[in-house]
Amino acid sequence: MSLELEVQKFPKKIALREKFTCTLRPLKRDDEKKFHDFFQAVPEEERMFIKHRVTEPAVIRDWCQNIDLGRNFPLLAIYDGKIIGDATLHQQLGGWKRHIGRVSVLVLPQYRGRGLARAMVGEIVQLARNLGLERVEAEFIGGQEAAIKMFAILGFSNLVRLEDYVKDMQAISHDYVLMGLNLKIDEEYAGVGG
After folding, report:
1. Residue 170, Cα to own-chain centre: how many angstroms?
2. What torsion do the CA atoms of 107, 113, 116, 121 make, to the nearest 10 degrees?
3. Buried b / exposed e across 65-75, counting CB within 10 Å, b at 16+?
4. Is pTM, for the whole model, over 0.85?
5. Is 117 helix (H, G, I), strand (E, B) or coil?
6. I need a labelling partner for 78 at 20 to 30 A (CA). Which of 29, 39, 70, 116 fits?
7. Within its chain, how far is the Cα of 114 from the centroid?
8. How many CB atoms lie within 10 A of CB 6?
9. 65 vs 18, 25, 33, 62, 159, CA distance in Å?
10. How far is it, in rounded angstroms, from Cα 52 to Cα 60?
């Protein structure tokens, strides 16, 4: 399926636990201030696990002014006019990882526990499948055990764990965890084909 057809599925309202509803939609150019506010609202101890310097306005400006949904598809959760969650599908458009997408997700603490991160990752996995990707992976720093558990529930398996392999923004070493999910369905086992 084409990216254009996928984009047309949004905005999409979703209902979660505790009768909580919000809207999912891709990042837009005019989201710059709201997106920066979102990252500012993430607790500092969690921002250490983010690969980019998301508190710097120039980083967010670059993301919002140079949107390429084919390379990075940020799916935002909007509630009461604010961004409360972001799940992104990252893709390599060529090279040896062109068939693999990478998934990242972040939900503000006060909106956790309702199934939002799980729903957003589910949307991103379906998007990856519809775009023809064969696998998706997710990277974690050891210590993000709740996120690792949620991805495992969604069918991701541990591919590798390297001890003290990465450093957070304060140069503290952590384990690196790579999880993956195979999106291709084996036609023999699905009862299709010959």
Report:
1. 23
2. 80
3. eebebeebbbb
4. yes
5. helix
6. 70
7. 17
8. 19
9. 36, 17, 12, 5, 35
10. 10
